[in-house]
Amino acid sequence: MEHNIQEISSDLMARKAADAEKKSIERKKKKYADFKKQGEAAKKRIKFYDKKGSGYMKDGKKIYD
Questions:
Q1: What SS3 state is found at 35?
Q2: Which of 17, 25, 54, 63 to pair with 7, CA 20 to 30 A apart?
Q3: In the predicted model, is pLDDT for residue 12 greater than 90?
Q4: So what's the pLDDT on residue 19?
């Protein structure tokens, strides 16, 4: 059987492009999930600076770094 090399290479390129697109979508989903998680954590702690030093307010208490 004789295959056209151009057909094989175009099929291979199409598969590689589809795989790359899937990886890109997964990477974007993970990046957004990490960003969202970081934002939720930031809402629970508030950064402060005073004469003793700096730290975070958590549950109404000062926690120094």
A1: helix
A2: 25
A3: no
A4: 93
Separation CA 23–CA 16 (nearest Å): 11
Domain ranges of the chain: 5-64
What φ, ψ does residue 63 adopt, rounded to 5°? -120, 115
Give the β-pairing of 61-64 and 53-58.
Answer: antiparallel
- Residue 60 has what DSSP assignment? T
Q: Are the C-beta atoms of 25 and 14 separated by less than 8 Å?
A: no
Confidence band for 5, pLDDT divided at 50, 70 and 90? low
65, 54 contact by CB (below 8 A): yes
Instruction: Enter the tokens of residue 59.
Output: 């549950």
For 53, the token pair is 């030093």
- Looking at residue 17, its amino acid is A
